[in-house]
Design goal:
- By secondary structure, this protein is of the alpha+beta class.
- It has eleven helices and 40 strands.
- The chain folds into three domains: about 130 residues, Immunoglobulin-like (Sandwich), CATH 2.60.40; about 150 residues, Immunoglobulin-like (Sandwich); about 350 residues, Glycosidases (TIM Barrel, Alpha-Beta Barrel), CATH 3.20.20.
- Helix 8 links the parallel strand 37 and strand 38.
- It is elongated, with a radius of gyration of 28 Å.
- About 55% of the residues are buried.
């Protein structure tokens, strides 16, 4: 009883004390948010409102409150009437009550809360009418996440070990389930049982649901060994279910249909890989896991080149431009020497789509002059995977209309970016070792409206122009209105292909400002979504100053990253950089960032694994991966010495 009772009062209370109780909403106790839903006779419900308990008391049922096998109907001088009948109580507080539905036989029922119950000054709320169904099944959750994807309360039947993403709750041991495991999963509202168990009475023995349920995990039908009441409780149900063979790794949705009712979406079970030999990356809670369900610390670098060399016409035979110190791909053994397990590959939408475009100098360009761009990307991804590295495909350069994307635009565009992601997702949906970084670095210019709403959902904003470029790097603003492809639209395009790959979502100010990320986060039906972060030195700060050693938007950005993680969403720093000129003594910004990401279980990729001569943000001097002074030396030492 002690293991399950905490989950019967899982939602926070946030109301103040007042004289008269007021009911605002009612939901099944498994619901992820306080919302009116159908409830079922004998099911556990959550009642939300204000002024429920005297003097602001919060009280949870204790074994001493029971009278034999009968539940109390008065806790802390608080009572609930359902259909005129006193209801059994599990938990009371000023703003929430968890109670068991009475044996209502009608299609609706009136619920009333009575404060100071049994005293001279007792006060009743106005009744609230709810819809009643034979069954309204819902799972209980270990934790409720902002993305609507919530781990169900489940234990492994043999060991009673918690099933879920590792680290889900501090101090508790969680592990993924494996195909073939038998799980015990807890819920409410499964409906009538045989034999019947009267509401308000603890079940003394197993009693199965009157109808046999259908349960799926990851869309695969599972074998149900038992579905019914949990002995020792009133209104609590359990499923004893076998994890089916063939279910994919990661957080897989679970659903039940029983006694005419269906569970809401959002609940998941964490599954270990069915084939640990296959390279795979997925999201479980706020961490990345491999095919065996192990947490993966991601560390690596960016392979810049494909975003600009093809469209600039460097060498039609080699879309990478030899930027890694040799033709075509980098020297993978050199990257392995740095203990990298991931690379990020920036791409150009027009080159991938094979478009003809015009730059600001008036030149017409073939964005894929060698007709080999997609093949070059496939070759790089294949070789990266063969070298034991995950690959991120990143939409880095984009431009609306017929303009050549030869530099950074504010956001992905509706003209081409959705087609780009439809094609990329179709090509790589069967490679679970590939992630999709939907757009590199949004920024605001020539804009009016709500900037966070517009880039995330495409609503409440507009751009009146965009920057365009020539081969020499000259830039001008094209003053014409254009439509973005929002992050939500790009997620939808990816998922429409059937791809379940992880999608990475950037943020404003070149993915340095995460202040509105969580409140405007797009939705992903797969629950495979993570935030990206690009921590570079504070803009304008000089090397050697305290400001230089802090990322843009510090210190608030550190809190924002932690808040995203606390909401059950991973953060991946897909770019960072520091000074690399000859004689540079260290990397103060990257030292700050590596300490932070290590303390918060965040992955980090450096910009960039290219043999460039720039004074900043270059990791290597040559094809063999000799680190640059300062930044390169520090970053390599961090990677190779990382546990």
């Amino acid at each position: 009883m002690k293991r399950i009772l905490p989950f019967l009062a899982a939602l926070p209370a946030f109301a103040q004390i007042g004289a008269t109780p007021v009911i605002t909403s009612i939901a099944g106790a498994g619901a992820s948010v306080p919302a009116v839903t159908q409830v079922s006779p004998g099911g556990i419900i959550s009642i939300y409102g204000t002024n429920f308990t005297p003097a602001g008391v919060s009280y949870a049922l204790q074994p001493s409150d029971l009278s034999g096998n009968n539940m109390p109907t008065n806790l802390a001088q608080t009572c609930v009437q359902i259909g005129g009948v006193p209801a059994a109580l599990y938990y009371v507080s000023p703003a929430q009550i968890n109670a068991q539905m009475t044996a209502v036989s009608s299609a609706t029922a009136q619920i009333t809360v009575v404060s100071h119950c049994g005293t001279v000054g007792q006060t009743a709320s106005q009744p609230l009418t709810v819809q009643v169904a034979a069954a309204a099944p819902e799972f209980l959750y270990f934790k409720v996440n902002a993305n609507g994807q919530n781990p169900v309360v489940a234990v492994e039947a043999g060991s009673s070990a918690y099933v879920g993403p590792p680290g889900l709750i501090a101090g508790a041991n969680f592990a993924p389930a494996k195909p073939g495991d038998v799980l015990v999963i807890y819920g409410v509202g499964f409906g009538p049982t045989l034999p019947e168990v009267a509401p308000g009475t603890l079940a003394t023995a197993a009693a199965a649901t009157a109808a046999k349920p259908v349960v799926t995990i990851g869309g695969v039908t599972a074998t149900v060994r038992y579905a019914g009441v949990t002995p020792g409780y009133a209104g609590l149900y359990q499923l004893n279910v076998e994890v089916p063979m063939g279910v994919s790794a990661g957080n897989q949705p679970i659903a039940i249909q029983v006694n005419g009712g269906s569970s809401p979406t959002g609940g998941y079970v964490t599954i270990a890989g069915t084939n640990p030999g296959v390279m795979s990356i997925s999201i479980s809670g706020n961490q990345f896991i491999d095919a065996s369900g192990n947490v993966v610390h991601l560390q690596g670098g960016n392979l810049s080149g494909l975003e600009f060399t093809a469209i600039q016409g460097w060498d039609p035979a080699d879309p990478t431009g030899g930027n890694f110190g040799q033709p075509n791909n980098p020297k993978w053994s050199a990257i392995q020497d740095w203990k990298a397990n991931i690379v990020r590959i920036p791409l150009n939408e027009s080159s991938w789509l094979g478009l003809t475009c015009t730059d600001i100098d008036g030149f017409t360009r073939q964005a894929d002059p060698g007709n080999n761009y997609q093949a070059a990307v496939a070759n790089m991804v294949s070789q990266a995977n063969a070298a034991g590295m995950y690959a991120i495909l990143d939409l880095h350069w984009a431009a609306p209309g017929t303009t050549c994307p030869m530099g950074q635009a504010q956001m992905a565009d509706a003209d081409h970016s959705l087609d780009f992601w439809t094609q990329v997702a179709t090509a790589y949906k069967n490679n679970p070792a590939v992630m999709f970084d939907l757009f590199n670095e949004p920024f605001i210019a020539d804009f009016s409206g709500d900037q966070w709403s517009y880039i995330m959902s495409g609503a409440n904003g507009s751009f009146s122009g965009f920057p365009a470029y020539g081969k020499s790097g000259n830039q001008q603003t094209i003053n014409t209105a254009w439509n973005v492809a929002s992050y939500q639209q790009m997620i939808d395009a990816v998922r429409a292909t059937g791809a379940a790959n992880i999608v990475l979502i950037g943020s404003l100010s070149y993915t340095a400002d995460l202040s509105g990320w969580l409140s405007h986060m797009p939705s992903d039906p797969q629950g495979q979504i993570a935030a990206t972060w690009h921590p570079y030195p504070t803009y304008g700060a000089a090397f050697g100053t305290p400001q230089y050693a802090q990322p843009g938007f510090a210190p608030q950005v550190f809190t924002e990253v932690r808040n995203i993680m606390a909401a059950g969403i991973p953060v991946l720093a897909t770019e960072t950089g520091d000074q690399d000129t000859v004689g540079t003594p260290g990397a103060p910004l990257v030292e700050t960032i590596t300490q932070f990401v290590d303390a918060n279980s965040i992955g980090l990729l450096g910009w960039t694994w290219d043999v460039w001569s720039g004074p900043n943000d270059v990791l290597i001097k040559d094809v063999n991966g000799t680190p640059t002074d300062g930044y390169g030396v520090f970053f390599k030492n961090w990677m190779v010495n990382h546990p």
